[in-house]
Each structure stands twice: as structure tokens, then as C-alpha cells.
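assembly run, all chains below
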Amino acid sequence: MAEDKKYQDASLPLPPDVEESLCRCGGIAGLTGQLPGDDLLKRESALFRALADPLRLKILAMLAVQPLCVCVIKAVLGIADSKLSYHLGVLKKANLIAGEAQGNWIIYRLTAEGEAWAQQIVDDNGS
Amino acid sequence: MAEDKKYQDASLPLPPDVEESLCRCGGIAGLTGQLPGDDLLKRESALFRALADPLRLKILAMLAVQPLCVCVIKAVLGIADSKLSYHLGVLKKANLIAGEAQGNWIIYRLTAEGEAWAQQIVDDNGS
DNA sequence: TTTTCATTTCAGATTCTTTTGAAATATCGA
DNA sequence: TCGATATTTCAAAAGAATCTGAAATGAAAA
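ok done. output:
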């Protein structure tokens, strides 16, 4: 053993600069303590998973223009009803959109959270 | 362009307010024209897919504290080498992290894009 | 009431992502 | 050179997401 080691994680041989800065932040334990909790990470990754599909991003971009009923979204995307319904369900579950029945139709609009993300998506048009 | 029709998409029966605002933005065609291109949507959704996993978000949060070699990341996460390597590969391919060999180790750090996302993830600690 | 229309739900098939354990690569120190 | 260590790669298996077409729901018009 390297008994004169002043670092907490002496059991793990490391590159010098990593070891030094790791020590400065409290070693493995200190680093671990700074990380977001698993519940938060799970929620955040679920949000990203809802955004991880081109069709769904396109739906958000459409709804950023204006609220729309399912049949218009379908006309723009040119996909089957059930497929669209599936993707709308994913976005709804992620709290990015909300639907309100109006007579024979259901009109979907962005939630506040959906607005924020749609903005980010549409803004990116340049890069 | 010269049309007698008041609405471009008269074939599609719509709720009144959707029809009106849809007309104001140029009908189905006008709306379609405002949307981001498929190539951009694909790139953006690929980025979100890379972020759509709690382990990977945790890795980004770790690297927001400091650059780290694989063995430290592994010690914090407590997962198998090959599994970690897979997730590092996903993040690397999405251009969120980059690895630099240093002797026997590979030290990973956030890219500029990775920094921005890691910030967003860590900032969310309250909500 | 019956029909029609917009939308959702369901089950099965398909495709994509992730996990696993073993083998490969590559670098260091002796 | 050898052996140890850090990391990646690979193929197969497991799991999750998505697609499909058919059937169900529910509101409105006839």
C-alpha cells in the first residue's frame, strides 16, 4: 500500500491531474454527493425521450404556430391515424402538449413546458 | 395564387377557430412551409436521444464537475466496463463529450455543447 | 335512432436500444 | 520481452419503442 497517500481513493490508481482535482472535490464520495438524484435524472431523461423523435419535434413545431386538431396535424404529416395518436400520446404524457375536446374534434396545444422546448427547436434553425 | 376560394383546405372540415387561424397562416401548405426541415429535425432528435437516459445524464453531470477517466466514472456509477463504454460512445457520437488518451487512461471531458446541456440538467435541481 | 366522422385503443409484428460476458487492443512498468 | 491495467469491441440476448390494421369510443348530424 502507498501509506503516504493523502488522497481518499488511493485504492484506485489515477492520472495525476484527475487525482488532484478529484481529491479537491472530496474524492469519489464527494463527487457522488454533488450529482442530481436518481429520481430527477429519471424524470429528465423521460422528457428527453419524448423529444427524441423527428415526428414529435415536427408536431411541436406545428403547434408552436397555432393550436391544431388531429386531422390537420395528420394532413401535414401524412401518417396513419393510429400512428399519430401514439405520438400525441407520448407528447401528452410528457406534459408537452394538452388536448381539449371541441365538438367532434380534439384540439391540441402546447403546454408552457412545450412552448419552451418548441422555441428551442425552432430557434435552432440556423446552426 | 389567384384563388376564388376563401380557404385553401376547404376539403377538410375543421373546428371554426382552427380553420380561421389556419387560413391566416396560409392553410396546410403555408403551415408546412414554416416547419423545420427533416434533416434538422433528425439531427435534433438524435441529440435528444443521446440525452434520453439517466445514466448518460449522470455522466454529463459528473463531467460538469471535472474531467474524469473512465475508471472514476465507473467507480461512481458501479456498472460494468462494457456497459459504461457503450454509454460513453453514445455521448461521444452525439458530440457531448470527448476523450483524450493520457498514458494508460482516457480522460473524458464535456464539449462546449455538452457543457450547455449539462448546465441545463444540473440547473433543474429544484423543479 | 342510426349513421357518420374524428380520434383512440388494442394486440401482434417489427425495429431499435441496451445489456451481458468474453475476447481484443493498447499502454505502461518491470 | 512479459504481465498487468484501462478501455473498447463484438455478438448474442433481453428489453423497449414504434408501427400496423382492425376494432372501439364517443359526439354530432340526419
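The beta strands of chain B are 68-69, 97-102, 105-110.

The helical segments of chain B are 16-24, 27-34, 38-51, 54-65, 70-77, 81-93, 112-123.

not gonna interpret more than that til we talk
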